[in-house]
Specification:
There is one protein chain. The chain is of the alpha/beta class. It has 13 helices and ten strands. It has two domains: 10-54 and 168-354, Rossmann fold; 56-160, Rossmann fold, CATH 3.40.50.1100. Helices cover 42% and strands 13% of the residues. It has a six-stranded mixed sheet, with helices on both faces. A four-stranded parallel sheet has the order 5-4-3-6, sandwiched between helices. Helix 3 links the parallel strand 3 (79-81) and strand 4. Helix 3 packs parallel to helix 4 (112-120).
Length: 361
């Protein structure tokens, strides 16, 4: 491999990364029946079927291609990530595909199920020596000492996605809706972790002149809603989100407020209630961030109903329920954290039955 010219290796590496996964087959678009909402069609774009099981797969794929093309990842470059979550799982997968060592520096309380997923994809992990707020800088230093590449998804994912020249998730959504009764969605709904997905969607809608609006749902303790509402670009809460994959204690560089039409704050217990309802009523086994999105979808559908308007709303399934069997899907775990989904479950059941949404929701 070392005898291969660096440019030839880079071209082949990018080809392998781009060829991984389902290819031209889009992730499924699943309808969510809501009989009380005549004229409003709800869909969930199921990103959990992507090879690493999460929508972060798209971000990490673009980041690897960008880093290879920029000369930051070469044939012998070790790759590091500062997370035990979905980014690390996808990073381990792409590193293994290229024959590169991969290490995730993980916070101390990372669940064993997530560590196992990193290992299943061929990666290694090591426990961080610093508190969660300092894991990014700790990993950057570890990568520098090893001559490796730091997969900084908070700083680099949005830039990499902006340079991605393949089909986007929005291209897939519009192609899949062509044969549906309302082919141009009124709203697309997503959460924000790095901010790269909302930036990708918002830029696409503006670039192509679509009338579709973009809503971001935001959990408790996250900085994105107050930052968007106040216009304060460096807003910080200093508190971590409890909903995996979305919400941040500070505004990350990839969050682009100018392409977002609405940010909807969602109580964490409401996210859990909505996740559980998707499981029991729709057979969609998605993670808690998808519950956050469903709560936001109901909020928007209620607004449309009150205004007498019709249309479709599309939200994203970020990951499956599988990693959360011992946490968000266990009543004891929820009680220990003061999360009581029952009042919100009653709100969701009433909304499904009557179309009436709580005014404070």
């Amino acid at each position: 491999m070392s005898a291969v010219h660096p440019n030839a290796w880079a071209a082949e590496a990018i080809r392998r990364v781009r060829a991984d996964g389902p290819g031209s087959v889009p992730t499924p678009l699943r309808a969510l029946p809501m009989p009380a909402l005549e004229g409003v069609d709800i869909y969930f774009k199921d990103e959990s079927v992507l090879p690493s099981g999460s929508m972060k797969y798209r971000l990490v794929r673009a980041m690897f291609c960008h880093a290879i093309a920029s000369g930051e990842i070469a044939a012998d470059t070790p790759v590091f990530a500062a997370t035990g979550g979905a980014v690390a799982v996808a990073g381990a997968r792409f590193a293994k595909l290229l024959g590169l060592p991969f290490t995730a520096v993980v916070p101390a309380k990372t669940p064993a199920t997530l560590l196992a997923r990193i290992a299943d994809e061929g990666g290694q992990w090591q426990m961080a020596q610093q508190p969660p707020a300092a894991v990014q800088e700790e990993t950057r230093a570890v990568a520098a000492r090893s001559g490796g590449y730091f997969l900084d998804h908070f700083s680099d994912a949005e830039r990499a996605m902006a340079g991605w020249d393949g089909p986007t998730i929005v291209d897939e959504i519009f192609a899949q809706l062509k044969s549906e009764p309302r082919p141009v969605p009124e709203w697309i709904v997503t959460g924000a972790g790095t901010g790269a997905t909302s930036a990708t969607i918002g830029r696409h809608l503006r670039r192509h002149g679509h009338p579709t609006r973009l809503a971001v749902v935001d959990p408790e303790h996250s900085a994105y809603f107050p930052a968007w509402a106040s216009g304060c670009g460096d807003y910080a809460t200093g508190m971590p989100s409890r909903i995996p994959g979305i919400g941040r204690p500070r505004v990350e560089p990839g969050f682009i407020p100018g392409v977002i039409n609405l940010v909807i704050p969602v109580p964490d217990a409401a996210s859990v209630a909505a996740m559980r309802r998707l499981h029991t009523e729709a057979g969609i086994e998605a993670g808690p961030a998808t519950g956050t999105s469903l709560w936001g979808v109901c909020h928007l559908a209620a607004r449309m109903r009150a205004a007498g308007s019709s249309g479709s709303v599309v939200a994203l399934i970020g990951d499956s329920a599988e990693p959360y069997r011992e946490t968000f899907l266990r009543a004891e775990w929820l009680r220990a954290r003061g999360l009581d989904p029952e009042p919100y479950e009653a709100d969701l059941a009433r909304f499904a039955r009557t179309g009436e949404w709580p005014t404070a929701g």
